[in-house]
Write a structure and sequence with these properties.
Layout (H helix, E strand, L loop, with lengths): L1 H23 L17 H13 L8 H8 L5 H26 L1
Length: 102
């Protein structure tokens, strides 16, 4: 049951990400491989998670600058986007689990 909830949540998340990606494409013929976002490595993900713990929400105005410094291969914008994706995934997972309990 939990696996089914996780699977459903992930599928919903993937669909929302795909919709966002489609909306972001203004003119596909002008896009190159360099325009495509590169996948996050496990090392980058671990660095991001550690930075999020080291610099909590109440850290201050330069929180995301510090987080980006902790993940040298990523920009501040990429770190923020990844964080938002993770938050959405967790929300979808919780919603699917709540739905499965009903």
């Amino acid at each position: 049951m939990k696996q089914m909830a996780n699977k459903n949540a992930f599928e919903k998340f993937e669909q929302s990400v795909q919709k966002t990606k489609k909306a972001d494409i203004s003119n596909p013929s002008e896009r190159s491989d360099a325009d495509l976002p590169k996948a996050w490595t496990s090392e980058e993900q671990k660095s991001l998670e550690q930075a999020l713990k080291s610099y909590p929400k109440d850290y201050g105005a330069d929180r995301w600058d510090k987080i980006a410094e902790a993940v040298p291969s990523r920009t501040k914008k990429e770190c923020m986007k990844r964080y938002k994706e993770i938050v959405e995934l967790i929300k979808a997972k919780k919603a699917a689990q709540a739905q499965a309990k009903k």
